[in-house]
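Protein in question kept underneath.
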Amino acid sequence: MPKLTTGCCAYTAIYWFLEAAYMQANNRLLDYFNSIYRYATPTAPNIVEMTFASRRILLTREPEHVKTVLTSKFADFGKGDMFHDAWSPFLGDSIFTTDGDRWHKSRALIRPMFTRDRVRDLHIFDRWAGAMLREMPPAGETVDMCDLFYRMTLDVTTDFLLGQSVGALENPRSDFSRAFMEVQRMQMILTIL
């Protein structure tokens, strides 16, 4: 497995974390993670092992690895205490932050929202896709598609799960939309650090 080591001093590890935090703060975290794969080998181009102090970190973009983690071996790959401690102030003890029994209990609470009939109801998705398309500028003008998809996802999700959207597409500068995005950005930086 290809390794990216930080050398013999903590300074290098701090540099890597600060670079990741900087890239996150500038909406370039994907660029940062993609750049790490320059340390991969031709025989394993989609995985890099990083060692910071005594912590072993595996980064993978190998589709089979992702599939294994998310499906067949899901129970073997928890989020862990560090992730929970960083994200629980924002997301509580929810399906997004817990493992084991607590995760199963959180999952049971939202399971009714994802019944076959409910997921097949595409009316909500169609309505918000239409709203997003109406936000598109005339031909020849540029638009931040990432922002539009983010706001549409926020509206779809809150409408689907809560029965009412937060109006992120209608009012991109609403207090809720801005606060939610800022909390996510800061939470990601905390996770990296």
About this structure: Strands lie at 3-5, 47-52, 55-60. Residues 151 and 168 are 5 Å apart (CA to CA). The radius of gyration is 20 Å.
